[in-house]
Design a protein that fits this description.
The chain contains five helices and eight strands.
Length: about 160
């Protein structure tokens, strides 16, 4: 029975794999915009984010989508992350192509987005509603029902409009 009841289409790949293909900066920047538009869930590691035909969507969040302004950034969630924020920052670091673990995320994102999306280096994060100084400032994300897919949903359920 394993694998027969997937709640999502199988025509995509996880974002971790996509980044591993060494995409050009403009493609990574577009994916960063989509990632920052997703609601923050319990496990935003890139293997749980799928690049599908209609854009990014999240799997394995088990219904844990946090509201803007109520994200428990400091809470511990998994053994491989110190906190929700740590998981999210690891994903952002991979998206922007962090050169070293200590490179500040704003510096990494400024290098990624400055030419096409966010020309002001003091606001390098391409949020859904404009460039911001920090990923913590991204608000009004997409609705969880449109981009979070559970294990028991039928094929194509994540394609509902916002």
């Amino acid at each position: 029975m394993r694998g027969k009841n997937l709640g999502f289409d199988t025509g995509g790949m996880n974002l971790d794999t996509a980044i591993g293909l060494q995409m050009v900066a403009s493609s990574r920047a577009r994916l960063a915009v989509e990632f920052l538009a997703l609601p923050v869930g319990r496990d935003m590691m890139l293997w749980n984010i799928i690049v599908g035909r209609d854009g990014l969507y999240a799997i394995d969040q088990e219904g844990h989508a946090f509201e803007d302004g109520k994200i428990p950034w400091g809470d511990r969630v998994w053994p491989y992350c110190i906190s929700v924020r740590d998981c999210y920052e690891k994903a952002l670091g991979a998206l922007c192509g962090r050169q070293r673990p200590t490179q500040p995320l704003d510096e990494c994102f400024a290098a990624l987005t400055r030419l096409e999306i966010c020309p002001d280096p003091t606001k390098p994060f391409p949020c859904l509603h404009g460039c911001r100084a920090s990923f913590l400032d991204c608000q009004r994300r997409k609705k969880p029902a449109s981009v979070f897919v559970g294990r028991n949903l039928r094929q194509g359920a994540h394609h509902e409009p916002n």
